[in-house]
Amino acid sequence: MGLDILLINVGGTKKKIYQDLSEDFSAVEPPFWAALTAAFLRNHGFSVDILDANVRNLDVAETVREVAAANARLNNIVVFGQQANTCAPLMTAIGQLCRALKDFSPDMRVMLTGWHPSAVPERTMREETCDMLAQGEGFLTLLGVLRGDPNPDIPGLWWREDNEIRHNARSPNIADLTHDLRDVAWDLLPLSSGHYRAFNWMSLQSLDTRTHYASMFTSLGCPYKCTFCGIHSTFGERRIRTWDPEWALRQIDILHNEHGVLHINLIDELFVFHANHYMPIARGLIERNYGLNFCAFARVDRVDAMSMEDLVTLKKAGFNWIKLGIESTSTEVLTKARKGKYNKEVSTRVVKKIHDAGIDLCANFMFGLPGDTWDSMQDTLNTAFELNTAFPSFFAAMAPPGSDLYSEAVETGLPLPNDWIGYAQQGYDFLPLPTESLSSADVLRFRDYAFHAYFTNPRYLASIEKKFGPVARDHVRAMSAIPLKRKLLGD
Are residues 250 and 312 in the same domain? Predict the structure, then answer.
């Protein structure tokens, strides 16, 4: 029997998204969503395979040859980034691949699933040469397509018929993650190949083991309403659904025992939210004593409300890194972004609390949100210097499809990139949003200045050497020595 479905993770994007940082410094993520989808469909009796063209560094022509050789009756390109807000830059390469597949064989069935097509389904159908896409999580939509259900009966399906684009209502979300999404097809990913790679900051303590890496969800969704985030457009709701802690621990058992994984990035939008979810996972990890290195996302206000005992337990479980969304020190900017009611004093207190638990931070800061000025951006950068976290991530504000900022930009005519690759933060074509008083070029210039100023700061480098050693210090120095060329700035 032939293959029912080939799930494709697009390749050829690293250099365009990260420029020269792609060689040694950016992460190479396993496509968890593809592996989750593969297991779901396999459990329903369909034959499935995954083509990770990204990890194999295949260009468009090479990917087409691999797809043709697989000869699946449905080819599903899974639009998956490290987060929902990082998917848009993939669409340039995905569009090229769609066209190339149709040029090779017009009858080849091509379907898109994932965060970006779910956020802007009509635009995606008009712009790309796919036959279909799924709005929503995609699991039930793919199931209906593979079963051969009539198109009007398939939830979440967008398709072409009689030269028109037709669609059904969004598919309902999976209600019981643990029961209905009980497995992950880790066996279809080359996890032991050494080609996936953790974030450099996440593995500063042991850079030579970066390739023993995986990422996974233990929950889906987020209840908050930050204007710069598009995650809710994927799920059609603002809440968190969780797998049972035992499910999460079983996946970690598989990753460690069968694939030799040492570093795990929990890509939940908000892992540190329900203590009755994350604390059983932490206690289970302590019992296993694998010595793994974890990173997870948290909010300032949620950590502020945590007990110190819970933070220390997370550290004992291997949560050596927390990714914390500080974003800005301006109360006005945070209010406009609907980020929260905390201020600089709260952020400072929370960072100290995390450090006191022995946990390091990748702290997110964002420049150019509505209301930002030269002074407010400088205040945010000054705070970053004061906090001296092990690795801040500096972003320029962007309006990812599905976010409130995207809707506002479209309605008000704010400049947005002409091509999806223009949404890549480290890309040559990156075009951030302007503010009321700053141009896009102003924001981008400040972001790049902030990055260079922070990572070449002698105080910071000394702290990295003291904590992680000279190899880590030299790695950071090498990273900061790579200039990003920017079209907007005339490079």
Answer: yes
Which backbone phi and psi does 295 adopt, to 5 degrees? -130, 145
Q: Are 391 and 201 in contact (CB under 8 A)?
A: yes
487 is a domain residue: no
pLDDT digits (tens, 9 = 90+) for 71-81: 999 999 999 87
Buried b (16+ CB within 10 A) or exposed e, 383-403: bbeebbbbbbbbbbbbbbbbb
Domain that holds residue 380: 185-480
Q: What is the pLDDT of residues 326-339, one digit of tens each?
A: 999 999 999 999 98
Does 83 score more than 80 pLDDT?
A: no
**How far is it, in rounded angstroms, from Cα 157 to Cα 143?**
11
Judgement on whether residues 349 and 291 belong to the same structural domain of the protein: yes
Rounded Cα distance, 134 and 170, in Å: 8
Is the same domain home to 336 and 390?
yes
167, 200, 232 - which closes a domain: 167
Please give the model's pTM, rounded to 2 decimal places. Answer: 0.96
Residue 488 covered by a domain: no
pLDDT of 422 over the 80 cut: yes
Count of structural domains within the chain: 2
Residue 490 within any structural domain of the chain: no
